[in-house]
Amino acid sequence: MLSLSMIVRNEAERLERCLASVAGFVDEMVVVDTGSDDGTPEIAAACGASVHHLDWPGDFAPARNHALDLVTGDWVLVLDADEWLRPDARSPLRDLMGQPRVLVVNLLRQELGAAQSPYSSVSRLFRRHPAIRWSRRYHAMVDDSVEMLLGQEPDWQVVTCLEPALVHEGYRPELVAQRDKAARLRAAMEAELAARPGDPYACAKLGALEVSQGQRRRGLALLEEGLARVGADDHAERYELLLHLAIARGPDEPAAAAALYRQALALPLDGRLSVGARLNLGALLLRQGELEEAAALTATVTDLCPELPLAWFNLGLIERQRGRLVEAIEAYRRALGLAPEHADAQRNLAAALLLAGDIPGARDGFRRAIALLEAQGEPQQARELAHRAGALVRLDA
To answer: What's the CA gap between 338 and 392, in Å, rounded?
Structure first.
């Protein structure tokens, strides 16, 4: 028997999609509402869920544990309302749950809107075992309790479902901005680090945030501390620390950044989880003129994640530098097929068409790029492009 366990609050826009994705796959749905005022509990009930209520405890872990206490299945699947189960994952997940020594199934999750890291791994499917509990203030997880249980009962297995199982839209830029997510996440991460000084996971998350917000010195210190403390077998955490250290060092220390990216790529991880390091190393090598390796790295990403516009755009840049205009044009077109609003891809496509002698195509491409820049609130860039392109082709022809 498989139970769905969820905590929700004001998720009326997304909840039905989530629950519909597991209909017929789970045997019961338990939804704990923590204070909605938008009809979320009624939607959950209409979808067949058992709805319970809990005053928000101020921390995700106790809320998730409360929901966990209410399920009755042999296995537990945990979802958030901004996630849904992919139909193709049902059969392989059933097969893995049927294996008698499997304790946890790590799920590949597709991150919609993520420019560089389109997949993550989450521990969201596990046996209902009294020792498995949620912990941590930031990104509550069962991993700590699973690690302790494996130390006591080493015959259990933790496996990964190779078929992407979940889709997640919570990190799309417009949703992050809408929910003022950065401020709330920072507060949670600071609290986590205060409770667990030097914890590699907390150091990775807060260190990366500090670097992204311009606090490079503190960010580097946190990432270095996390890397010094991370366990030898914790490949996913080590990868994240190496990735963000490389990003932080890249502008001033490209050789050090390249070495860090290579260390990250040497870890035994599913290739879809290491796309960020592969893409970034390829871009760094492009700037250094090492085009063959840059092309190989980036082409691998397009094979692993053909749905990623940035990979095709970067491949277009590299192929153009290699003098392979046909391949560059195809790559830019693939990028635009996935992200029609990508003004840089449109501009570079127009330039490549011009070099290839396709004047009408180049003219149309430049017009489209100018229109995109104007629509995206970049009138100065639009005027500059119109001036440069107008000197090459007659835009008014």
So the answer is: 28
